[in-house]
Write a structure and sequence with these properties.
Length: 169
């Protein structure tokens, strides 16, 4: 009985496949095929539909230290995406250790900490709920968020003397 059912199912499948292929295999050729064989001489080529790409939504974060907008190269990671969801953010930063400014973002976000030696300009996530901006160097477990593209001297001028306000939009 099982053999009979299997045979019937295979025959039905073969029939469906044959019908499907016969419907798809018409005798018309494309414009290129007709031009190549000469049978479509004089026929205008079919227009090619082109899809227009939608302009990318601006998702690049902008960073201000005090009233100065600074150029940043942001990382592409889940932590940066989570912070984008919180925008706009204003963070009161505090100097720490003579080489960084630290400030709370108000809640914890996704982190992927790795032991890192930071460099001047690095922006990192610390403990999942604080942003740290370096004008010096340090070694600790952080999640890298980005890098401010300024010189050490420019960073020290912006960050090195007193508490600053950081704005992310």
């Amino acid at each position: 009985m099982v053999r009979v059912l299997r045979t019937v199912l295979l025959l039905m499948l073969a029939l469906c496949l044959a019908l499907g292929l016969s419907c798809c295999s018409g005798s018309s050729a494309s414009a290129e095929d007709q031009d190549a064989t000469g049978s479509g001489a004089g026929a205008a080529p079919l227009p090619v539909l082109q899809t227009q790409e939608k302009p990318e939504e601006e998702t690049e974060m902008k960073l201000w230290i005090g009233e100065t907008e600074v150029p940043v190269s942001w990382e592409e990671n889940d932590s940066v995406e989570a912070i984008k969801e919180l925008l706009p953010l204003t963070i009161q930063m505090s100097p720490y250790g003579g080489f960084e400014q630290v400030g709370p973002i108000g809640q914890s976000v996704t982190k992927n900490d790795r032991q890192t030696t930071t460099h001047p300009g690095d922006i990192v996530l610390y403990s999942g709920n604080q942003i740290v901006v370096f004008y010096g160097s340090n070694s600790w477990a952080y999640t890298m968020l980005g890098h401010i593209d300024l010189t050490r001297e420019e960073l020290a001028d912006l960050l090195g003397s007193e508490a600053v306000t950081l704005k992310l939009e």
